[in-house]
Amino acid sequence: MKLLVCILDNFYKDQVEKELREKGYRMTELASSGGFLRKGSTTFLFGADEDDLPALRESLKEACLNVEKVKQRKDQKTHRYTSFLIKSGDLSHVLANGMLPN
Fold it and tell me: Which InterPro entries did the record assign (predicted)?
């Protein structure tokens, strides 16, 4: 099991959530802000098996592209999303100790 942390530009949020739920993905949504990425982002947490990761990542990309077909981006230089993959072993260490392993 892996945890995919996806920090998504709010421009795509509603459509990504809708399309991925329709495909059966379960997610947790967190409002996010801070210095890492600009304001106007939402963080989604996805739990996925190793074998499902390529399909999940492709679904994220397709959902963003579907939004762009309908709506025109105001700023073409901004990101769609940034994602991080955390192995389940690392995650249990974070939960137990409140920090990442060295």
Answer: CdAMP_rec, N-reg_PII-like_a/b, N-reg_PII/ATP_PRibTrfase_C
Q: Quick check: 37 and 7 in contact, CB under 8 A? A: yes
Q: Is residue 101 part of a domain?
A: no
Of 38, 24, 49, 36, the C-alpha closest to 77 is 38
The single-letter DSSP state of residue 23 is T
Residue 13 in tokens: 């949020």
The CB density around residue 94, as the number of other CB atoms within 10 Å, is 13
Higher pLDDT, 94 or 54: 54
- Tens digit of each residue's pLDDT (9 = 90 or more) over 58-70: 999 999 989 988 8
Tell me, what CATH number does 55's domain have? 3.30.70.120
Q: What is the pTM of this model?
A: 0.77
- How many domains, the chain? 1
Look up the domain containing 45 and give its range: 2-90
